[in-house]
Amino acid sequence: ARPRATERAAFRLTASSPVKIRTSAANIIIQEYCRRRQNSKDVLRSLVRGIAIMKRRRDFVPDHVTTNIVLRAVFSLPTRVLDNNDVRQLVDQLVYHGYPAGRRFSKSNIPFGSYFQAGTVQVIHKYELPNIVGALSFARHLRPMYKMIIKAFFNRGDVVAARTTIGILKELEEMELSRP
Q1: Cβ neighbour number for residue 75 with a 10 Å cutoff
Q2: What is the pTM of this model?
Q3: What is the pLDDT along the chain (180 residues), one digit of tens a residue?
């Protein structure tokens, strides 16, 4: 009901806590930025602004859950703002910068063939994605991300790209199941 009071209380409780706990608390607050607004442009704008404020004032370290929250807000943008080519380029950026995409695709063989300059910073609507540090959880990070991407492609009428992404997701699922 009172987002600012909730934010202050969460960070007061976690000021001396480890980074992981502060990040989890911040992700909960960031999720509320998405729920409060109706206009998807306002959601994304307030979300990115909120992340920047928390990074500056609260020593917030964005993680891959944060990235999924931002992607959800980006994919809620209307197709006139974010068309299927933009989504394809976004997927290529994610793969190029280290997100797994199965055995068929890699940094040198991205799924949709977008062009990137070497050393470019990975930015989505003024949000700089965190570098991949440590292992990504399939269930917590990758499956939700790829399901959002598939839905975004279907919503934009790009069935070919959606099927390519479904193939990536199935391959990642098989790799996850074959792990010891």
Answers
A1: 18
A2: 0.83
A3: 456 666 666 666 555 677 777 788 888 888 877 776 667 677 777 777 878 877 777 777 788 888 888 888 888 888 888 888 889 988 988 888 888 998 999 888 889 988 766 555 566 666 667 666 667 899 999 999 999 999 999 999 999 999 999 999 999 999 999 987
